[in-house]
Structure formats: C-alpha cells, structure tokens
Amino acid sequence: MPKIIRWGILGTGYIAGEFAQGLKRVPNIQLLAVGSRQFSRAQEFANRHQIPQAFGSYEDLANSDLDVVYVATPAARHRDDCLLCLHANKAVLCEKPFTINAAQAKEVIELAHSKQLFCMEAMWMRFIPLIQQVKRMIDGGEIGDICLLSADFSVPTEFRPESRYYDPSLGGGVLLDRGIYALSLAFYLLGAPESMVSQAAIGKTQVDEQIGMVLKYTQGQLAILSASFRTYSPNEAIIMGTKGRICLHEPFYRPHKISTVTKFPLVRGSAAPTSVGLKQKLTAAMKQNAWVRSLYYQFEPFLKPAKTTLQPPDGNGYSYEAAEVVRCLQMGELESKIMPLDETLKIMAAIDQMRQV
Ligand SMILES: NC(=O)c1ccc[n+]([C@@H]2O[C@H](COP(=O)([O-])OP(=O)(O)OC[C@H]3O[C@@H](n4cnc5c(N)ncnc54)[C@H](OP(=O)(O)O)[C@@H]3O)[C@@H](O)[C@H]2O)c1
Questions:
Q1: CATH architecture of residue range(s) 5-124
Q2: How much distance in Å is there from the Cα of 184 to the middle of ligand 1?
Q3: Ligand 1 atom closest to the CA of 123, numbered from 1
Q4: pLDDT digit string (tens) for 174-211?
Q5: Any idea of the CA torsion for 111, 338, 51, 313, to the nearest 10 degrees?
Q6: What is the CATH number of domain 129-264?
Q7: DSSP letters along 254-289, please?
Q8: Is the pLDDT of residue 273 over 60?
Q9: Checking CA distances to 355, which of 224, 253, 297, 326 falls within 20 to 30 Å?
Q10: How far is the CA of 162 from the centre of ligand 1 (A)?
C-alpha cells in the first residue's frame, strides 16, 4: 500500500482554494488542516473544502500532525512561512515566487537541506503534461538545435495599490508575479543563461508593471521574454529550432494545445542549387522570376502545416505539482528533478539581477 501523504494549507486566499480543489484529484493523500491568521477564515475555508481541522495561526498549523504544508501566502511572507514549517519538521511546497530574493531562497533551501526535508517551489506550469511533452521533444532534438524562445504573460490587472500585485511590501511587481513563468520556462528548456538584460516600466507604487527581458546562452540562443499588468498579450510561448518550432498556445503556462511545425519553407539566401529536387528548382525559379516569387509569397502560409496536439490539463491543473510532491515523499526524495532547488535559486538570482536588489 502506498503511503498516504497528509497535507495542510497555509493561507486561505485565491490560490489556496484552487490548490485545495486540485488536491482532490491526487490519489493517496489526505487534506487534513488549514491555517489562517484568523480562525474564522480558517474555519470558513475548512467548511468550503471539507477539511477536518482549522487553525487560527500558522504556528498551530505547522506544529500539527502533517507530512507537508503548502504555503499560499503573498511572496514577501514565503521565507518566514517556509522556515516556520521546516523548523516544525514539515516538508514544504511553496508558491511562486519561492521568496522575494535569492538570499531568502538560500536560507530556506539551507534549512531544508540541513533538516533533510523535502522542499519545492510550486511552479505548477512545469508539471502540466504538454509542458512535459515539449521538454521531451526538445531534448529529443525534434526541432533541431534551439535558436530562439519567446514567451509572454500579460493580463490587465486592476490597479489597487494595496493588492499583492502592486504593494511592494507584499512582494508586488509583474516580474515576481508573471514574468517568473516565462523565466522559469526558459530555464527549464534552455538552462541557465550566460547573460541577460532587462527593461521595466515602474508604476506609481514603485513596482514593475511591465518588463522585457533578453537572455543569452553560450551557443548564441536567445530567450525573449515579457510580462505586463497593463495589457493583454497572446500569452503564448514559441520555441524555435534549426529544424522546426513549437508553439505553446494561450495560456502557455497552463497549455491545452501545442502546434509543431517541422517543415520549413524555402530557405532564404541559399546558394545556387546543387541538386535538382523540387525545392531547389523552386528556389532557382524564385531568384529568376518576380512572378514566381509573388506567387510563392501568396501560398507561403499554407506551406507550413502545423501539427496540433490537444491535451487539456486535468481539472484546474494544480494536481500535477501536488502529485509530484506525493511521489517524492513516498519515494523519500528530498527534491523534484522537474523543479530542483538549485534552479529555483538560480532563477531568484536572475530576478535579483533584473530587479537590481
Ligand atoms: N500558481 C498559481 O497559479 C498562482 C496563482 C495566483 C497566485 N499565486 C501565488 O500564490 C501566492 C498567494 O497569491 P493569492 O492570489 O492566493 O493571494 P491572496 O488571494 O491575497 O491570498 C493570500 C493569503 O495569504 C494570507 N496572508 C498572510 N499575510 C498576508 C498579508 N499581509 N496580506 C494578504 N494576505 C496575507 C491570507 O490568508 P489568511 O488571512 O487566511 O492568513 C491570504 O488569504 C502568491 O505568491 C502568488 O504569486 C500562484
């Protein structure tokens, strides 16, 4: 019989509720407790999600009889809340961003290591089946060597200075909230960059409301990433290689559809054809005749047929990260290979560099 993993949820806000829903789809778990700064909120949450125990403090939750705590508070609290749970000998799944800077992340990771406790950033995107499929396709060379990656996460977000999006004391800013998905995707698919540059638009509350980032890798690959609280973008990610490209359709961080192009149209700037294939003949004809070029450009869009794969995530998509935590705890693994702690730390260091903290 697999070990039953006993969960608690710390915080009672939006994502705590979504996670509680997602957890219901994971086998071999019990969601036993929820903790809030206020007992009535914990009680209400417990009633809503059929959770047996409600605690009026995070300390009481952390010290109760559980295997793992899901930390769902605003980013600025993550360090303290993670340390609290780890000191109470609980494994931790902590919402993104893991902390608000690399120094805090290091503190949490060091405590998890020293106590030999499981710990993971809840970067749920990485565990969605289509993201896993794209990772396998890229690692398997299906689109050749990667040249470019673009990703953007932009959704208009009401300006309320006191909200966790805009309040710097809660860890506000679009990079920590949204840009981190694009950044985490680039790290997952391409690894850590050699260098990076960024530009941000800072709003009235002194947090970044829009950001653009360019990451450069050792072989010249570039990741071009952006995020905004001000506009609504296609919210897609496209990975472009020497032999093809893959589009993670909106929303790329919770994809239900990918399309893959592995037949490129004619190569521009090619030398005189050395063989007599159709493609070479067409290339030569295009060079010589303006009307062939014009005809080709009319039909070019249809020469790039994309293969579409549809696979909507199960439920709200939060069950996959939880299932990975359960698997790791059952196997006695202290980290997930899909979202390892050293990568969380590198991502936080990249964020520090861009936020210049
Ligand atoms: N994975 C995702 O898709 C996703 C989506 C949204 C958010 N998130 C992340 O999840 C975390 C929480 O976001 P959320 O949207 O759930 O926020 P939220 O709705 O504001 O909830 C945050 C909860 O944290 C607790 N809290 C503790 N100190 C607080 C403070 N000073 N101000 C406000 N709340 C405080 C509150 O619970 P009590 O009052 O009960 O203590 C509150 O309900 C953030 O790190 C965010 O980036 C992830």
A1: 3-Layer(aba) Sandwich (3.40)
A2: 20
A3: 1
A4: 999 999 999 999 999 999 999 999 999 999 999 999 99
A5: 160
A6: 3.30.360.10
A7: S-SEEEEE----PPTT--S-SS--HHHHHHHHHHH-
A8: no
A9: 253
A10: 13
- Residue 19 CA, closest ligand 1 atom number: 1
- Domains of the chain, by residue range, sit at 5-124, 129-264, 266-303
pLDDT > 70? residue 265 = no
pLDDT digits (tens, 9 = 90+) for 83-133: 999 999 999 999 999 999 999 999 999 999 999 999 999 999 999 999 999
Determine the Cα–Cα distance for residues 33 and 50; give it in Å rounded to an integer: 10
pLDDT of residue 274: 56
303: CA distance to ligand 1 center in Å?
Answer: 47
116 C-alpha to ligand 1 centroid (Å): 27
User: What pLDDT does residue 352 have?
Assistant: 97
Residues with CB under 6 A from ligand 1: 11-16, 36-38, 41, 72-75, 77, 95-96, 122, 124, 164, 170, 177
pLDDT-derived band at 270, boundaries 50, 70, 90: low
Atom of ligand 1 nearest to the CA of 45: 40
Span from the CA of 283 to the centroid of ligand 1 (angstroms): 57
Alpha-carbon span 26 to 222, nearest angstrom:
37
Average pLDDT, the chain: 95
Give the residue, out of 9, 10, 12, 15, with the most ligand 1 atoms within 8 A of its beta carbon, to mutate for a pocket test. 15
Phi, psi of 287 (to 5 degrees): -65, -35
pLDDT at position 272 is 56
Token code pair at residue 145? 């060597």
- CA of 14 from ligand 1 middle (Å) equals 6
